[in-house]
Here is the input.
Amino acid sequence: MDMPSSSAAASAPAAPVSGTTVAITNFAFSPASLTVKVGTKVTWTNKDGDAHTVTSTGSGGPLNSPAMATNDTFSFTFTTPGTFNYLCTIHPFMTAVVTVTP
Ligand SMILES: [Cu+2]
Here is the structure.
């Protein structure tokens, strides 16, 4: 679990799929498909100038963020395995999925 602590320039858009962060940028979730193990805390960060939400598709889903302003974050810890589809309720064309494995 070595984490580079250097503050060296992060100019490359490195987005490891194994990470637990999702960026919201250019009206899209990145990565749009994230796989994590159960118990993982996933954090979304709104990098856009527009507000977005992280909201489970359909009813009764666990994801239900408030509208996130620029640079706001929203975190959720997935405690059950499954496939969790979500979208931005303000821009419903923004869809993505988190797959939680046992
Ligand atoms: Cu949005």
